[in-house]
Each structure stands twice: as structure tokens, then as C-alpha cells.
Amino acid sequence: MKVRQLSVFISNQSGRISEVTGLLGEHDINIRGFSVADTADYGILRVVVDDPEKAHSVLKDAGFTVREDDVICVNLPDTPGALSRVLKLVSDAGVNIEYIYSLVSTYVVINVDDADRALQLLEDKPVELVSQEEIVGIQEGS
């Protein structure tokens, strides 16, 4: 069972990721998972969406360079070592793991060049910020 992933090549400048995700949203394409790799000059936005053919067409028409690849997706139990066990099965068989990322989560990590400023910008907006304690499952006030 394979999943289609799109790799979108973008210049490494402010607003480019927002432009891609905005285009997908405007065309009712739901992002199920994503990853961004960057260099000083460009980035690669990898996305798994609910309609890869439509997404590919929309992004190509907007002038983006897009590549499609088959990837695999596994549903891991939320237990320590679950990821390691799956990766070990693959790597012990001599299959190289090029990269991994997670899907279907509304918790999104955003690395910015000024975290304090970004937090100030989001503080009074309808955005739910997540604390380190929430990441490890500890509810505030308990």
C-alpha cells in the first residue's frame, strides 16, 4: 500500500510556503501531512494531500516545480519504541530510510528566525499554542 507525496520546490524566502498552502486551501485540497527541508537558497515542501492529482495540477499551473513520489505510511501505537521497532525492521533488511515525518496531526512545529516575535504575533489570535508539558501529555493544572 503506497501513498502519493508531492515535493514542491520553492525559493527560501518569506511567504513562499504560505503561498503553496494557500493555493491548496483555495482549491479545497486538504493537507494530511507535510515536511519542509531547506538550504540557504531553496526549500522542498513535501506534502501528502487528499487529492494529489488536483494538487499537482494546481501547483504546476501556478508555476511551481512539483515532483510526485510513492511513499509508505504506517500507523504507530503511541508507545515508547514503536517508531524505532518499525525503522529497525526496514533498516535491518538493508533498505535505506531517506527521511520520515508524521501525518494527520494538528500539532505543528514551526521553526522561525525570531520565536519571541512570532509568539507575540500569535498570542492574541485564534491560534492554540502548545506547551512542552502538553507535548508530553501533562495537562496544566493537574
Describe the fold and architecture:
By secondary structure, this protein is of the alpha+beta class. The chain is built from five helices and four strands; from the N terminus they run E-H-E-E-H-E-H-H-H. Residues 138-142 have low confidence and may be disordered. It has a single domain (3-103), classed as VC0802-like (2-Layer Sandwich), CATH 3.30.2130. The N and C termini lie far apart (42 Å). Helix content is 32%, strand content 23%. The longest helix has 11 residues, at 16-26. A four-stranded antiparallel β-sheet has the order 2-3-1-4, covered by helices on one side.
- Tell me the CATH architecture: 2-Layer Sandwich
Q: Strand count, sense and closure of the main sheet? A: 4 strands, antiparallel
The arrangement of helices and strands along the chain is EHEEHEHHH
User: Percent range for helical residues?
Assistant: 25-40%
Helix-strand makeup class:
alpha+beta
Strand order of the largest sheet: 2-3-1-4
Distance between the termini: 42 Å
